Prior knowledge:
This protein has helices at 9-21, 36-52, 67-81, and strands at 26-32, 57-61, 85-91, 106-111, 123-126, 134-136.
Amino acid sequence: MSGTVTGSPVHDEIAGEFLRSRRGGARLVAVASPDAALSAAFAEDLAAAFARRGVLASSAAQDGRSEEALRDELVAPLRAAGADAVTIVAGDGSLLAGRARWLWHFRIWLATDDDLADTTADAIVDITDPQHPARRLADFCQCDVG
């Protein structure tokens, strides 16, 4: 998959949704997908959406770090500093796997039309067309509602 994700209403929607529930302090958001480069582009645009709302935000790359390394090298220092800011960590699906998924205050999975959505995510964004990302609801209910 190629292309870059660009700022869109989805970024503003997610920033607003997150800030309604997490108003202050050191806050952490994970952006994960099978393509770490697309995650990084989305994270940059999300940081810009937070900035438009007057919130200090930055993005960081997972860079293949394990859950333990993320906790020690990124999460613990940010929480200790206690800054009123949002840090967005971009990477692959391991950000939402196992114990790593509990490091984040909000989790975003970037999906394409052939990806199964990661149901541990707080938001799923379809980036089949990276220029026009759209929220996707993960309703996997196979109930008979008739």
